[in-house]
Design goal:
- There is one protein chain.
- Helix content is 58%, strand content 3%.
- With 362 residues, it is mainly alpha-helical.
- It has two domains: 207 residues, Citrate Synthase, domain 1 (Orthogonal Bundle), CATH 1.10.580; 99 residues, Cytochrome P450-Terp, domain 2 (Cytochrome p450-Terp, domain 2, Orthogonal Bundle).
- The protein has a three-stranded antiparallel sheet with strand order 1-2-3.
- Helix 13 runs parallel beside helix 15.
């Protein structure tokens, strides 16, 4: 049997998350994703993944303090960000600055949760500082009274974000914080399995996330929403695309054969925010029409919205520049990567898969 790309091969045992593509389930540490997005904050999910249980009040306060303390970029890291070529894409900037951070701390094997917190806290600050530097604007000092997501939006704009926007983006970031043995997570585990350091493992993951087949921005969904907003006729736009045989962006998933549980959870959260943002309302309107038309044009295919669909709506609502989409994904997935790195290091065997020679013999 051909297992190119290791598809279908179990490469590790994990207690962090489980992705059930057939039934459309996603759990973190045994908890269904729907429950987590409805009742918990990003910091609590991070604590759950790193420590294996939810924090009490004192533990949560301690984690927030640690994240606050580590948000501030050192002068050395700021200098590095500033001298990088303006043409350098933001994912490469994050990769380079995180790599440089490895020279300023004690990042030897084995990795620690304190190191995971440090790298997670730094990532939004790197993104925001670089964006504002490119715009010729002063950097924004982090605010300790804002949570991880709220402070990220604040550092990007210098303005206190709307609560509805924070809630929407926080839900998205919770839903993308971890997703099993995906390509970037696998690369992180491979690197740490050699008893390298956590910075090197995370750098491997960032480089993998940069690839368009993994961390690509939901630009196709944005174009769809823009077109529908302009014409104000969702059914006509979608029907025309299906008549032409075009792929409807934001629908269907290579893993989930039914509803994408992340899209379901995100929609549920956004429903509570209904009426507070026109783009979120438009997305829910488009989804209903699109699913009906997909059943008509592609019967039996079970095509439903994926997480990218509502991610695009959220990014549009909070006016996030498209160049920030994958970096924002990275800011959430840093928690999942580091949790996998810690798990791999705790019961480590170096990865050494076989390859099949198909070349010539002389």
């Amino acid at each position: 049997m051909n297992h190119k790309g290791l598809k279908g091969i179990v490469a590790a045992e994990t207690s962090l998350s489980h992705v059930d593509g057939e039934l459309g389930h996603l759990i973190y540490r045994g908890y269904d994703i729907q429950k987590l997005t409805e009742h918990y904050a990003f910091e609590e999910i991070a604590y759950l993944l790193w420590y294996g249980h939810f924090p009490n009040k004192e533990q949560l306060l301690s984690l927030k303090d640690a994240l606050n303390h580590n948000r501030v970029l050192s002068d050395d890291l700021k200098k590095i960000i500033t001298i990088l070529p303006p043409s350098m894409d933001l994912m490469s900037v994050i990769r380079t600055v995180i790599s440089a951070e490895g020279g300023y701390g004690n990042y030897h094997f084995p990795p620690t949760i304190a190191q995971a917190i440090k790298l997670t806290a730094l990532t939004p600050s790197i993104i925001a500082f670089r964006k504002r530097a490119l715009e010729g604007k002063e950097d924004v000092t982090p605010r300790e009274d804002l949570n991880y997501v709220g402070n990220y939006l604040y550092m990007l704009t210098g303005e206190i974000p709307l609560p509805a926007h924070v809630q929407a983006l926080e839900s998205y970031m919770i839903l993308t914080v971890e997703h099993g043995m995906n390509a970037s997570t696998f690369s992180a585990r491979v690197t740490i399995s050699s008893e390298s350091d956590i910075v090197s493992a995370v750098t491997s993951a960032i480089g993998t996330m940069k690839g368009p087949l993994h961390g690509g921005a939901p630009s196709g969904v944005l174009h769809l929403l823009d077109e529908i907003s302009y014409t104000n006729d969702a059914e006509k736009v979608i029907r025309d695309k299906l008549e032409k045989g075009e792929k409807l962006m934001g629908f269907g998933h290579r893993v989930y054969k039914t509803h994408d549980p992340r899209a379901v959870a995100l929609k549920s959260k956004l429903t509570h925010l209904g009426g507070q943002d026109e783009w979120l309302d438009l997305a829910m309107h488009v989804e209903n029409i699109a699913i009906d038309l997909l059943k008509e044009y592609k019967p039996g295919r079970s095509l439903y919205t994926n997480v990218e669909f509502y991610a695009a709506a959220i990014m549009k609502a909070i006016q996030l520049d498209p160049m920030l989409f994958t970096p924002t994904f990275t800011a959430s997935r840093m928690v999942g990567w580091t949790a996998h790195i810690l798990e791999q290091a705790s019961d480590n065997t170096i990865y050494r898969p076989e390859s099949k020679y198909v070349g010539n013999h002389y």
